[in-house]
Specification:
- This protein has nine helices and 26 strands.
- By secondary structure, it is an alpha+beta fold.
- The chain is globular and about 70 Å long.
Length: 515
């Protein structure tokens, strides 16, 4: 058997997110297989209890590649190490973005806080130091009471009224680094390094970095690098860009109408099925200079809501059962440990307005560690009537999770139409920058996606897309007649059309598992 290098979970996450599929269920399956607890990303602003124990120096990650992170809602951009996990959540009225590495040796929270506008930035920071170092009971990251003692607390660093040395932005900041008393089973001091950038009218953009004393010599340089890359944007301009993109997206869909959408699904139905190959150029591969990453099969047609029951072998009375559009996708992704299979189907009714639409989807994700082993399977079932979204997630060794979300404002795009969005944009024949809200399973909420379409001199269509504001951009190319040419991803992966027979031959030659 020819050795075929496999993909990391980070690469798999990017691949699946580009397909609008979440990696959450995959991670749960992997955790169950290895008897490791699933890592939660819920935070309340207090000490994370999941910071890793100190590891020998040779076990520390070798951080070499940094990738952009952009929080459009805050108007700030910066870089983070490749392989980190990002979670967006709301705690009360505060929207936080939490970033953690695979070993959980540190955590970075970025947020906006509103304080007393009569206080100077220095006074705000000094008051925060007093609050964080005094003895009190506070809610821990998991909501349980946590006793914080003032014994052993100390201020290790205090800076103010200066810009980040060697940084991109010249905006002055207030900074403090605290050593907080042990409150974990490792009896290790916590280090909290917080930087506050004033943004006017008593508001501050906060970068709050957590780590432990035993690993701080390895982790604090990460925060220093993050700070040097911080750059601010005009929030008003960002909001105007979003609004303009949403308006342009709405305009293009009005031009398309139901006939334009039907034409895309009718063409998919006529073609029967499409096979796409995902690979990474790899000169060390002696067979064809390519490293296989995965593949997918897609199908689409005009159909009804009950078609999803037929696809998944479910029985039951579907009421109402409107006409609409059905999209199906099956995919396989190679991982370091085994592979992941995804079977999914999506429906949306052909009503012209979101408020009248009925939507439904099912996603079954299975992780197989080795050939012959029993796969661990997770399921997601989602439905929408009008502006109300309801989702049920079933994961191994975990109770079912119920999620409710609402559509607010204009610009929502159903799951079924997200998958065919490039084809719809090509059929609209317009060069434009558009934005749509779409449900993102991994974030359990609706997020704004961005697409920019251009036509080159030879008639080829180029579409630059971001599934969310924090996902890397990828570019898809379509022929003048609307047929798919390829997609190029930020990490170098390529997706190209192929046939089932060609795909089978390639994977057999490379000794890869076929389903």
């Amino acid at each position: 058997m020819i050795h075929q290098p496999t993909a990391s979970k980070k690469q798999a996450a990017l691949f699946l997110s580009s397909l609008s599929i979440s990696l959450t269920m995959i991670c749960a399956a992997v955790s169950a297989q290895t008897n490791q607890p699933s890592r939660t990303t819920t935070v309340t602003g207090s000490t994370p209890k999941t910071l890793a124990q100190p590891q020998p120096a040779q076990d520390q990650p070798n951080i070499q590649i940094w990738v952009p992170q952009r929080l459009e809602g805050l108007g700030v951009a910066f870089e983070v190490p490749e392989g980190t996990r990002t979670a967006n959540e709301r705690v009360g009225t505060i929207q936080r973005t939490r970033i953690t590495p695979p070993d959980l040796s540190w955590a970075l929270e970025v947020m906006m806080l509103i304080d007393d506008p009569t206080l100077t930035p220095s006074q705000v920071a000094d008051r925060a130091i007093q609050n964080l170092t005094r003895t009190r009971t506070m809610p821990a990251w998991d909501g349980t009471p946590l006793k914080v003692s003032d014994l052993g607390n100390s201020v290790l660093l205090r800076q103010g009224g200066m810009a980040v040395p060697g940084g991109v932005t010249d905006r002055p900041y207030e900074r403090f680094r605290l050593q907080l008393s042990p409150d974990n089973v490792q009896n290790d001091f916590h280090i909290r390094d917080q930087v506050q950038f004033p943004s006017g009218n008593g508001s501050y953009i906060i970068f709050d970095f957590w780590t432990t004393k035993s690993v701080s010599s390895q982790t604090l340089p990460v925060f220093e690098r993050v700070l040097r890359t911080v750059n601010f944007e005009d929030v008003r301009k960002v909001a105007m860009k979003r609004a303009a993109g949403i308006e342009e997206g709405q305009r293009l869909f009005e031009l398309l109408g139901n006939q334009g959408v039907e034409a895309v699904f009718e063409e998919l139905e006529r073609s029967g099925e499409e096979w796409h190959r995902f690979y990474m150029p790899d000169p060390t591969n002696a067979i064809d200079g390519k490293r296989e990453f995965g593949y997918r099969r897609i199908r689409g047609r005009l159909g009804r809501r009950s078609d999803l029951d037929t696809i998944f072998g479910r029985q039951g009375l579907v009421n109402p059962n409107p006409n609409g559009y059905v999209f199906q996708m099956e995919a396989r992704v190679m991982l370091d440990e085994g592979y992941v299979d995804v079977i999914s189907a999506f429906f949306v009714s052909d009503d012209s307005t979101v408020e009248k639409q009925i939507e439904e989807w099912s996603i079954v994700t299975s992780h197989t560690v080795k050939i012959g082993a029993r796969p661990l399977t997770s399921r997601e079932f989602g439905s929408r009537e009008g502006i109300s979204i309801s989702v049920i997630k079933e994961q191994p060794n975990n109770p079912a999770e119920h999620i409710n979300a609402m559509i607010e404002g204009k610009g929502y795009l159903s799951q079924a139409l997200v998958y065919v969005l490039p084809r719809l944009l090509v059929n609209a024949g317009a060069q434009a920058n558009v934005a749509f809200y779409a449900y993102v399973p991994d974030l359990k909420t609706n997020k704004l996606r961005f697409d920019s379409i251009e036509r080159t001199e030879d008639g080829t269509w180029s579409i630059r897309s971001k599934a969310t504001e924090n996902q890397p951009e990828y570019t898809s190319f379509y022929a003048p007649d609307g047929s798919f040419i390829r997609t190029e991803y930020a990490d170098g992966r390529i997706c190209e059309p192929t046939t089932k027979d060609q795909l089978l031959a390639i994977w057999k030659r490379k000794g890869l598992p076929l389903g």
